[in-house]
Each structure stands twice: as C-alpha cells, then as structure tokens.
Amino acid sequence: MLHTVKQSPFGHGNLPQALCYMADEDRLLLWQDAVIAATVPAWRQRLQPLASAGRLYVMQEDLQARGLQSDLGQLLTMSELVALVAELGSPQAW
Predict the structure, then answer these.
(1) Nearest to 94 by CA among 25, 28, 1, 6
(2) GO cellular-component terms in the record (predicted)?
C-alpha cells in the first residue's frame, strides 16, 4: 500500500501516525507541505530506513515550489505518481 502524507510534520501528527501504521512492504509518499520532512535532519534520520529500502517517495514539484532540495528517497513527478498509484492501487491518505 502507498501511504501519502501532505501536511508538515511540524503542524500535524499525520507523518508519525502514518509511520506507525505502515506494514513492512508499504511505501510512503511525501507531498505538498510534508516534503519539508525530507529536508530537516531529525526527520531525515527517521525516514532514512524507508529511503534505503526504496520505499520513500518525495514529490519533486512540491520541493521546487517551496525552494527546497532533498536527496532523500526517490523524487517523483506527477506523471510518475500516477503510474505508481496505478501499480499499487488506491493510496491511504493521511
């Protein structure tokens, strides 16, 4: 299953909650304001195991829109996200 988080981890508890409910084979997508987590050291450390396992995705357009850069996880475009959802089925939105 693909879990999607769109809110900043500094304003909402959605990211920690999503991480708690993820199964071993699940994947995580950070988009909208949640991409901030991929740039902050404390969150990068927490997300690194998912990235190392190839289970973390970060929306490239959302990073760019916020003037941010990250090398954590796999950067996705919107068309790549559509293909991923087609592959994995309906995501769990947080």
Answers:
(1) 6
(2) sulfurtransferase complex
